[in-house]
Design brief:
Blueprint: H1 15-30, E1 37-41, E2 47-52, H2 64-75, H3 78-81, E3 85-90, H4 94-103, E4 108-112, H5 114-123, H6 136-139, E5 145-146, H7 153-164
Parallel strand pairs: 3-4, 4-5
Antiparallel strand pairs: 1-2, 1-3
Helix pairs in contact: 1-7, 2-4
Bound molecules: zinc ion.
């Protein structure tokens, strides 16, 4: 059993939001950052915040999922956070999973899993990240999770390959 075995599959209604996250990831890569993008959908179905990776300035905690958690804490009442969904191109890291749970957000839907990303990086000979590659469910077991989305895997993999300087 793998860490992502508890995850559901994204639904057709999720796909446009995941599509937008992958576009934000490409935008990040084009701007010299790592290819990750995320958005926050409120309980009424409105996209209220979106962001992409911004670590190129030297602060490696500038993940979009972390920015979403902070934005939600500042702008949404606890009851509204509990009805909000986060979509993201790559599964939350341990830091972002913890932030998500601490501020009381609800479901997470991701295009590519941490397990996939770790496998791609290993395949390309890249060093391991400084943080353990835990699935969301290992850090925040109460959060409903869906992913990965198979139809976006090749595209997300290609973005990460480009980020690593690997020809695809
Ligand atoms: Zn993160």
């Amino acid at each position: 059993m793998t860490g992502s075995a508890a995850s559901a599959t994204p639904t057709p209604d999720d796909l446009p939001y995941l599509r937008r996250c992958v576009d934000l990831a490409r935008e990040a890569l084009d701007a010299g950052d790592e290819p990750f993008g995320s958005l926050l959908l409120d309980g009424g179905g409105a996209v209220v915040f979106e962001d992409r990776n911004r670590v190129s300035g030297g602060d490696a905690t500038r993940h979009p999922e972390f920015e979403i958690a902070r934005w939600a804490a500042d702008h949404l009442a606890p009851g509204d956070r509990a009805r909000a969904t986060v979509y993201t191109s790559g599964e939350h890291c341990a830091m972002c999973s913890a932030a998500h749970a601490w501020v009381g957000l609800d479901r997470i839907v991701y295009a590519a899993s941490t397990e996939q990303l770790v496998a791609w990086h290993a395949e390309w000979g890249l060093p391991a990240a400084p943080v353990a590659p835990l699935p969301i469910t290992a850090v925040a077991p109460g959060i409903p999770v869906a992913g990965p989305e198979p139809s976006l895997a090749d595209e997300v993999r290609a973005l990460h390959a480009r980020a690593a300087g690997i020809p695809v």
